[in-house]
Design brief:
5 strands, 5-stranded mixed β-sheet, 4 helices, single chain
Length: 153
């Protein structure tokens, strides 16, 4: 899928943005962005990136962290031993400001997550990129080859 939009991504501490002006469309996400994002960074729990468009608008947020997954849950590849946790990189949050949705910015932000995953995986062990997707976002991730690991499948 080709995206005609292009965001520039910055580690959020390297770029001053008006976090209070970001409209996630969800109070919990807005609270995370305005309050908890800094705390998670300081506690080394995640790395957060902001997507800025060519007009210098704060368009998206991407939060990544280390995680694990058990291969006996859904991974059918026999090359992984069962019953041990395997390292992954997790998309904790991928949010596009509601004023900019439907323009390819979500795809652009996910592509950034995949790019970071590839680079990190060259330096440390990681078998995959995972996401805790909200129900309304599952189809978006499936378009990019993500597999639904929920017990509802």
């Amino acid at each position: 899928m080709t995206v005609s939009v292009n965001l520039n991504f910055f580690h959020y501490k390297d770029r001053l943005v008006n976090k209070k002006n970001f409209q996630a469309g969800n109070l919990a996400l807005e609270k995370y962005i305005s309050n908890n994002m800094s705390q998670f960074e300081e506690q080394n729990m995640s790395r957060n990136y902001v997507g800025i468009d060519s007009n210098d608008n704060f368009v998206s947020v991407l939060c990544l962290s280390a995680s694990t997954i058990k291969s006996d849950e859904k991974i059918s590849d026999n090359s992984y031993p069962l019953h041990i946790e395997k390292p992954t990189i997790k998309i904790g949050r991928l949010v596009v400001d509601k004023r900019y949705r439907g323009n390819g910015y979500g795809t652009n932000t996910l592509q950034k997550a995949i790019s970071i995953f590839v680079e990190v995986s060259k330096r440390i062990g990681s078998i995959g990129l995972t996401v805790d997707a909200k129900l309304e976002s599952v189809d978006f991730y499936k378009k990019f080859g993500f597999i639904n690991f929920s017990s509802a499948d």
